[in-house]
Write the structure tokens for this entry.
Amino acid sequence: MMISTLKKLQYDKIQSELEHYAVSYIGKKHVREMKPLTQLKAVRHQLDQTNEAKALLQAGASVPIPSLEGIEPILQLIGTGYVLSEQDFTHTQQFLRSCRQLIRYMATKSHIAPVVASYASSMYELPALLSEIERCIYSGRVVDAASKDLAKVRKKIIVSEERIRRRLDQLLHKHRDILQESLVSKRNGRYVLPIKKEHRRQVSGVVLDESASGQTVYMEPNDVSGLQMELQALHTEEAREETKVLSELTALAEKYSAELQLNADTVGLYDFIIARGKYALSIGGRNVQLNDQGRISLKQAAHPLLGPGMVPLDFSIGHSYKSLIITGPNTGGKTLTLKTVGLLTVMVQSGLLVPVEEGSTCSVFEHISVDIGDGQSIEHALSTFSAHIRNVKEILETANDKTLILLDEMASGTDPGEGVGLSIAVLEELYRRQSTVVVTTHFTEIKNFASSTAGFENARMEFDTETLEPKYQLKIGEAGQSYAFVIAEKLGIPSSIITRSREISETGRNQVHLFTAESKDKEERNIFEDRTRDLEMTPSLTDADEQTDVEDTQSASNPGSVPPAYQLGDSVYVSSMKRTGIVCETIDSKGMIGVLIQKQKHKINHKRLSLHIAAKDLYPDDYDLDIVFETKENRKKRKLMKRKYVEGLQIETKPES
């Protein structure tokens, strides 16, 4: 999973909190390197480990995890020819004692934590190494009994130091009158007398140092210099013998280097597991059921970084729907819902228990992709929309049926119409790939798409309209709203504006369609006017033509004959007016036909009409003839009447001629 995805979900903060519960450097390293796993069996194993650790801690006893203090450099130096120091062996001694304690502790806990307790069976107590260290090292020093030669040289050192002290006592008594103070000091590891500067020539010896004021010189008397050289040689021999002991201990430790490393690794693993158990107790974490089919069901879930102050979240996806569209007011908890679902999922896949009620279910995903926040980059001056598109592009590169996708404020940052269209197309593609998708949005079109499309479901964040405060509760199965009008009214916007706003909002979509229709009307009306203009410019028929037409008409109307069937939109010639017109009403019971001449409606007997151009040859197939016969205002009114009742709304028509 991408590091950027984990960071957006605040996974690094979970790691930081978890690291506080680890006590060893290896345990802390495990926490820092922790990443979500993608194999269901591996995730199940890690969760059960953590659950057993939680059970151990709840049993009351403190788990004795060694701190591994000083062990890291020891393991790095073993086998390099470096001789370990007394301090190194002190740390090793404490480590082996702690390992022994841990092994024996876990042997008694197999009934509580069978899997976790079994790891201790691979550890080594190393009694031979521990006993040898205890025999040779005590309080950070090689003891006399570590070797016979060391014991001998230390006895000689004691004798030599005693001879020096006796001789110095004699000199203190002898030179008491010229001493700055009656005591013996040490300079550079050698015994000296503090002589007043003006009397230094009265003492045979070498000045090794003097006081800051210059009034005192520290002299090594010649009477003890030989004894001190002898003592220095003995200390050199002592150091050589101590090195021999440490070298032999180092060689012994090297024989058990693999066992020491395994012990350290096992302790680090225990530390990591127990730290997860401690963290689970601190956040109220519980184990969950698992699947790899994209089914999530969270009961009373909480965001672990918010603590008990968060309103618990009930969330479900992956059963009857794979995509959930969440709507609701700003600051109502939509983004928090996304982050909670995403963070709990990556925590579970990391083997962490999460703050949910028993019976909750999580899915294991191969990919988790998120687009939360505007993702703007000042350095590259990316717009909000551009950042969204870049994120969506990356999401589409990996999206499949094993992907969880979290998209915040879809369709934001660009033209609403285009943004909605692009968003729905992306949602359709993600559904085709069977990805698990959770989206937040404000757009009604996306809510409507979800409500009418299989595999999609709406949800809303509840809002208290009285207090103007979000309830931070998710209700699945219902689409939400932004509550802009409620908030505006509560904050003092005049009621007349609110009423008008509601009207515009309620008819907004129809107004859009009406506007589109009007544009089409205008285009078609222009076509009609052009055609009418052409017809009106057509030369009038000659008298002979007219007489022929009249005779044809009369012949077609003889008693018993059927009147010609003129169609709406037919262009006809009116012999009595010597004009052409358009049929706007078909023939009635009296043989009268409605004809539109120069935008004026006339009732004319069919005998006075002859066909000039048929409607099928005059207009396109899908032409709306209402544009020809109805005024623009009346067309608007008719469309509004079809939607709802409007008091006082009337349609006016011009009188017929």
User: Anything to note?
Assistant: DSSP finds 21 helices and 21 strands in the chain. Residues 374-382, 509-520, 538-556 have pLDDT under 50 and may be disordered. Residues 495-536 form the longest helix (42 residues). The longest strand covers residues 456-464.
